[in-house]
Amino acid sequence: MYLAHAFGERYELPLPLSVFLLGGTLVVVFSFLLLARRGGEPGTVPVPPGGRGDTVPEGDGGPAPDSSGAPASVGDDPGAGPSPGGLPGWLSLAVFAALAACGLWGAQEPAENLLPTTFWLLGWIAVPLSCGLIGDWTRPVNPFAVLVRLADRPGLRRRLLGSDEPVPWPSRLGWWPATVGFFLVAWAELVVNATAVVPANTAFGLLAYALVCAAAGLVFGTGFERRGEMFTVLFATWGRLGHRRFGGPGRPGLGGGLVVPFDPSPSRTAFVLLLLVSVTFDGLLATPGWDRLERRIPGNLVLHPGWLAAWRTVAFLLLAAALAVVFGMFAGVSRRLASGRTGRGGLSDLLPSLLPIAYGYLLAHNLQYLLVNAQLLAPLLGNPPGLPGWPLRLPYPFDDDFQPRVDLLPSAVYWYVSMAAVVAVHVIAVVVASVQLRRVAGSAGRARLGEYPWLAVMVAYTALSLWLLAQPLVTEVEHTG
User: Fold this and answer.
1) How many helices (H) does the chain have, and how many strands (E)?
2) Which pTM value belongs to this model?
3) Which 8-state DSSP code applies to residue 71?
4) Is 394 helix (H, G, I), strand (E, B) or coil?
């Protein structure tokens, strides 16, 4: 089994936790005050050097030009990408097949098999983090997107379906296939983790999804890739934060994709919200208080895995609903105050401000987990399936003599880095929200008025995020005056 999220000794805070929470929230408030003092005309967006400030909501209208004057792709929809038979695509399929073989026929202890670490650690955490920093670089090497493009062949479609042309992607489906897919993978990670990380189970799940992608590519063509293929949508969404666009929406530079509003459909809103809900629920599960709560439930559900999974599934759904209601309510009030009118789109307008928060918490909550468990890759590369009779013998550290260092960094480092990351992304969220509200505001005064409700919810969520991060890492020292 993987090493847990909390490692080594807990760090004793030099000050009460309440002081850190107060300091973090005050930074967010002060950043808002500085932004409000700077002001800005309604309906305008600050443009970085070289940028034009043109924005197009994803899925609407034509592409906006980027800083070079060339048309940028609309929304998260990727371009045509490399040909299905390109070398990166074929290599990604070969690696996927080898990993699936390791999962099916290799050792079934997760720590001894390369597949669980590759998918759950690298594919589910490290790759999204890299997209949020660099941009969505994954399109040429995403094996599921490659399968969609391979299946999108007029000749094959004519023989099997009687038509050369793919079925147009139904508007009623929107982004729901990708949203449901993300929920299922997040549910597997958070609720039934002990079962999901078994190599054979991971392999069967990925192979089943590969068949779905191939079938959907045959029927819908690349329309499924753009809005239905979960990993394409996931990496493209995180890629909005990255420095490079790789054909995605927005302008070059960190956070350049946030100037383009998200599609206002419920399915797109649900997908982005799930990014935030999943990391919040992950942090909640890691708190000692949650563990005590589950042990106090009548019948002690911890002793009954089926009931425990049902309880956590309900809790996950309730948290998602609660955050959707809270953020939706405050976003609606902010839009009403800023624009002077009611209508749909309040939460979708402010979705770009939630993406940095989700990214910051993904980084903060998984930093220690990633750095420690990534060390397992060294011996796993020496024996990918984890079989005792594996013929290839590699020297240290690619052998069983290598042991990961749990104490790679002191717990204090993780706490302060996490705290800085969470506060920084909330400050960025306030700035992004200000930009979005100014775009719909009727006047500068209304724009500033609309920012107050969203600031309130940002401050509350900053305190909650810091408190959740502190629980597995730190302990408070009692101060007496």
Assistant:
1) 18, 2
2) 0.86
3) B
4) coil
